[in-house]
Amino acid sequence: MNQFQYVRPTKAQAAIEAVAKDPNARFIAGGTNLVDLMKRGITAPQKLVDINRLPLKQIEHQGSSLRLGALALNSVVANDTQVRERHPLLALALNAGASPQLRNMATVGGNMLQRTRCTYFYDLSMPCNKRQPGTGCGALEGINRMHAIFGHSEQCIAVHPSDMSVALVALDATVQVSGPRGSRSIPFADLHRLPGTTPERDTNLEPGELITAVDVPDSPFTKHVHYQKVRERASYAFALVSAAVALDIENGIIKAARLALGGVAHKPWRLTAAEQVLVGQPATEETFRRVAAVAMQGAKAFKHNEYKLRLAPNALIQALKTAAAA
Amino acid sequence: MATNHDPDLPAPHDEHRRNFLKQSSLLTALALVPSAVVEAAESKLDERVAEAIEKIPLSLKINGKKHKLKVEPRTTLLDLLREDLHLTGTKKGCDYGQCGACTVHVDGLRVNSCLSFAVMHDGQEITTIEGLASGDDLHPMQEAFVKHDGFQCGYCTPGQIMSAVACVREGHAGSEAEIREYMSGNICRCGAYANIVAAIQDVKSGGKKV
Amino acid sequence: MDIEPTFSKTNPTAGVVGQPMSRVDGWAKVTGRATYSAEYSGLPGLVHAVLKTSDVAHGRVQSIDVSAAQRAPGVLAIFTHQNLPKLAKTPNSPDDRKAFVSSPMGFFPMESDQIFYAGQPVAVVVADTLERAQYAASLLKVSIVPEATISSYLDPKAQLYTPKTVKGMPGVTKRGDAQEAFAGAPVQLTATYTHATIHHNPMEPGATTAHWEGPNRLTVYDSTQGVSETQKTLAAMLGLATEQVRVVCKFIGGGFGCKAWVWPHTTLAALVAKAVGRPVKLVLTRPQQFTSMGHREEQAQTLRLGATREGKLLALIHDKSSTTSPWDDYAETNTRITNMLYALPAFEGTYHLAHANVMTSTATRAPGDMPGAFALESSMDDLAYQLGLDPIQIRLLNYADKDPSNGHPWSSKSLKQCYQRGAELFGWNQRNPKNGQTRAGKTLVGWGMATASYPVHNSQGNARVRLYADGHAVVQAGATDLGTGTYTVMTQVAADSLGLPPENIRFELGDTDLPSTQWSGGSTAAGRVSSSVYLAAQDVWQRLIKVAVQDNKSPLYRAKIEDVMVVKGQLLFRTDPDTGEAFGEVMKRAGMSDIEGSALGRYGSSYEAPRAAANADPNKKDHASEHSMHAFGAHFCEVHVDPELGTVRVTKWVSVIAGGRILNPKTARSQVMGGSIFGIGAALMETTERDPHLARYTNADLAGYHIPVNADIPDMTVEFIDEHDPYVNAMGVKGIGEISIVGTSAAVANAVFHATGRRLRSLPMTPDKVLAAMREPV
After folding, report:
1. Of C88, C168, C212, C277, which sits most exposed with the smallest number of CB within 10 A?
2. Do residues C451 and C461 share a domain?
3. Can you tell me the distance from the alpha carbon of C631 to that of C660, in angstroms, rounded to the nearest whole number?
4. Which of C120, C283, C285, C644 has the highest number of chain A CBs within 10 A, making it the mutation to test binding with A?
5. Confidence grade of residue B35 (pLDDT, cut at 50, 70, 90)
6. Taking CB atoms and an 8 Å limit, are B33 and A105 in contact across chains?
7. CA distance C370 to C744
């Protein structure tokens, strides 16, 4: 790993300025992904701006939403009483991710900004448009068992690995951002990008922009929720496919629904069309099967990940059933 | 197989051949595109940065003892412990946060010390396996690991024990299933899992301060 | 001596052997005080070496630009093929290779510009700190001109051939006319089984600290399963006398076969340490571990099984295809177990290999027997279902009362008891004979079982006992404790052999300055080292008896040596056990503070061959070599299969093993559980995938390569059948390290079949494969 300059500002503005004016500077919080990327030489910042001393750890209810500070640890959020009561889906998703140790390091902001785990991205000697634009996509004709079935491009078929983000996109969260040109809010669904012709860009954040918090709006989704994660071992593995489901059910009829899939696309994959189909329908397996078919429209698989075309709807159906029965 | 490339090597599948050629030309291209690290070095940025900063001061309390250190920012907490302070009880199994052998407590939280730069912990309190026992008296979790044979080769063991202590303190040792889930961030290739669970249950029900 | 001493004769009553004693090295391991090979931090001037490896799987190094790396701070030296010091003898020369005890492949990197596999070392950077060495290595610009790459035996360009020999076994084995017998069999089963590339992935990666204490004096702290083999091989490569190399390995973080050899990184560490004149530490990164210490090769096995309508086997034809390196004809010997496990009148086994751009595969826990048993035990399960027989019944029907591969009687075999006890513990008689019938909520539940077996290989080694007059002893053998309990069980054996409490014994291992013994591999260490220790203690007694009978103050004065026996440290008349004295008395009067004995212990069919040790009996008839020696066992497994998600979880496990004398049931149980988990991993999740075009591993770390975690593993039941084998060695011990994995993957696959009605013949059984199988008709 290269030498780098290390600074530890205590004010957000100083941190933002430090990164905004230096294209080779990066924020670091938990470090669980960035340190890994630096060790492998995938990224080589000249300056790290440690934001851990910024006052961004709060979890508090404000107005009609729960604000999660960007530096709140994944483990703290998952165990927080307000989170568990108001947004149990988020707690489930967080606890399905990584390991207890990593959840004690990873922050809310860092989790959503983690980069893909595509092995072609991680191996410097493999072609990868995301890591080195123009070199090609090794996964396209390589080993692509873990890769995307939605929203991929010829340039990139990687998936976003975060579990937390799948819950947050389903729960209509909003990301609060501060940057050199002031603050703004980004709907969670617009934070991450599809690869298109610029797979090197994971998100719509501008240089120097710092995530300060995530707001999760109050919702009726406090009971009928489930996060179904399918992985190759029982714990401590990235999802092959995951499904986040939040339902509002009254007298057996679905009043509102939020659905998202993980492990299927370059971003957490919200299923708005499928949600529409659920509204007004009885919470039955028959309904869920119809909805799953809608959810899978437009999916396209590659040589080794065709199984996801069956696994994703099955996971969604199981999540719907479990959520409805909760 | 011939040790030298045979230009007449049959290519039974044209499709494959085409792929190979495409891939091999990619490789040639790759060799010409320098990696991020090489790029940085060539712009001499790195040398300027290195001159400007070198080692920076760091205060840590490790196993109850205060340390005033000077470290390179790129030194991980794990390498600081193992290479600089010779606290080799904390192990390096993967170096990428994928095995848990490097688990230590930072301000009471179990973390992977390999994924953290030491400088980020200025002023914090670190506990490693060497700091768990008080003098010659083993910590109850250490005793239980011996009693229940919670290890074989012993290489993942310090990480398992640090994780197990945290698992109990966090309140995640309520059931066998919960222990298994909350101990899944520590890989044991020898396969001592059932014994590790037994050791944790023993400590949990043993009533000693953990 | 008249009687060949055996432990069961001299220790008829129970001591600490066979007791579940806690590990004597437990304290060191739970406190972090145990020192592994990369942890000799106190060496003066220690510096760090880092490997730079090839991105390309086949080609030639065109250039290595070292300029940026050389400018980097702290760099002491950079070695490439152009300036690496030459080896005295190299694996690249077939003649030289004969001098090596333990070189795993016919290739040594960095001796030329040739690149044969991705991950092959192309440079070594030495710097004063680890960070600086790593950084400098990342600055090397290596240009390689790529050549056509063959990724595996499945590559369309690969050419399969049958080698003359595979690990000393013929490439083709024929017993009877299997082709004809198969053709005439009323029941015929043909199936192909595939097995992914598996990596050992011990938690401690390969690590070497090399310290030249003089121009011809090298000490190497190496993570190795055999210090003696490493010593001899390194000495030959470096042009030193064996005694000029000392190898130390007090603690090793797992091995499983990959640390049984001297791989290039160890030799490179020694070479560069000499060149820079400082002690050098070289530790493989986890990704480098995948391309530095071998693997279990990916393979396909086609089994053609012929049987009568009643289920009696008539013929087995076993073909194995697998990948080997460009230089070696290496394959696991899968046909060893398929040729011997059942009463089988006709057998034919053939190996098919293809050279590809990959390093040579190597011994991996139960090499050959593990994948061989997966194929055979899956086929036996198929046969049982096809004929409507219980899986245990079909195995009893074909029970081999002698070894069918060579006609020898078994030295001991308690397999029937293993089936019976395993079935009891598991509740097998509650099994629904039909598959796909049992549900638990959304999951399908299935039960499966399989037979396990592993041979007792020949091996031998020395031990030394120094007994002090004050009742303490130091016992030594240059063995390795892989976590298997060697420190502990040898302490127990020494304690009983000397009649002392175990806390009075210090057992030392892991150093070539100690009596030499063979590696810990092939499940040989427990039987061999314990026999050596036991016989060395007998040597002490023989020497002490000679002192006593010449001492006119001893009650044994002028007794014949053969009339004196030693019971729990008391020297007594055989005919009058009330007369005698404690060893300490004899020693005190003789002014001896301590006395030493040593012995050569043997394990396996050479146990009774004429030996060099002082206690040999040249007239004794050699019964051992007339017997076939194996441990046997059975594994039982319950799985829950989610047919919609394709996930398989093992929910119950029983292993019953007959492995001769069990020295310590606590450590033995752990070892068997560990082997089973290794097998469960191979069955359900472990695979290393090479890119089909680039022949590079695409998942070479512990997030990409899945080893079972705690949540994957249920509580496990392990029992041992009490077995007394007089032929295997002086202690009656058979190894258990490897039998613990044999049959495990089949037990899981058979349970999946019982749960779902679908036969999965491709390991690992990941969700994608289970989902595909669920779409097939039952």
Report:
1. C168
2. no
3. 7
4. C644
5. low
6. no
7. 8
Residues C679 and C714 in one domain: yes
- The pLDDT of residue A155 is above 90: yes
pLDDT level of residue B6 (50, 70, 90 thresholds) = very low
Smallest Cα distance from A237 to chain B, Å: 9
Q: What is the DSSP string of C685-711?
A: T--B-B-TTT--BS--STTTS----GG
Helix (H) or strand (E) holding C228: helix C227-238
* Phi, psi dihedrals of residue C302, rounded to the nearest 5°: -105, 125
Residue of B nearest to A43 (CA): B36
Q: Is C135 in Cβ contact with A142 (below 8 Å)? A: no
- pLDDT for residue C622: 77
B190 neighbourhood in chain C, CB within 8 Å: 203, 254, 483, 670, 674
Q: How many domains would you assign to chain C?
A: 2
C572-620 pLDDT per residue, tens: 999 999 999 999 999 999 999 999 999 999 999 888 766 544 455 666 6
The band of A233, judged by pLDDT with boundaries at 50, 70 and 90, is very high
Is position C176 within any domain?
no
Residues 126-185 of B with CB under 8 A from A: 163, 166-167, 170, 172, 180-182, 184-185
For residue B52, give how far its alpha carbon lies from the nearest alpha carbon of chain A (Å): 8
B31 to chain C: which residues are within 8 Å by CB? 55, 142-144
Of A46, A102, A127, the CB nearest to B97: A102
Give the angle C576-C577-C578 at the CA atoms, nearest 5°. Answer: 90
C766 shares its domain with C692: yes
Instruction: Say what percent of chain C tops pLDDT 90.
Output: 95
Which chain C residue is nearest to residue B83, measuring alpha carbons? C41
Residues C462 and C428 in one domain: no
Mean pLDDT of B61-80: 97
Contact flag B115-A104 (C-beta cutoff 8 Å): no
List beta partners, residue C569: none
Compute the distance between CA of residue A156 and CA of residue C106 in angstroms, rounded to an integer.
Answer: 40
Residue C384: which domain range?
368-456+629-775
ipTM of the complex: 0.97
**Residue B28 reports pLDDT greater than 60:** no
Whose CA is closest to C2, among C604, C574, C728? C574
Residues of C in contact with A305 (CB under 8 A): 768
Which residues in chain C come in under a pLDDT of 70? 1-3, 609-620
| Domain co-membership, C602 together with C485 | yes
The pLDDT assigned to B38 comes to 59
Domains of chain A listed by start with CATH number = 5-51 (3.30.43.10), 224-325 (3.30.390.50)
List chains adjacent to chain A, taking adjacency as at least 3 C-beta pairs closer than 8 Å. Answer: B, C
Asked whether residue C325 is domain-assigned, the answer is: no
The pLDDT > 90 percentage for chain B reads: 72
The count of CB pairs under 8 A between chains A and B is 137
Cβ-nearest to C702 among B157, B187, B197: B187
Using the predicted structure, report yes or no on whether residue A319 has a pLDDT greater than 70.
yes
Residues of A in contact with C647 (CB under 8 A): 230
Active-site residue list of C: 738
Contacts of C771 in chain A (CB under 8 A): 307, 310-311
Of residues B116 and C622, more confidence is placed in B116
Residue C476 sits in the same domain as residue C608: yes
What does residue C26 show for φ and ψ, rounded to 5 degrees? -60, -45
Average pLDDT, chain B: 84
Residue A191 has pLDDT above 60, yes or no: yes
Neighbours of chain C (3+ CB pairs under 8 A): A, B
Burial category of B134 from C-beta neighbours within 10 Å (exposed 0-12, middle 13-18, buried 19 and up): exposed
C63 beta partners: C143
A6–B26: do the CB atoms touch at under 8 Å?
no
Separation between Cα atoms, residue C330 and residue C363, nearest integer Å: 10
pLDDT at residue B140 is higher than 70: yes
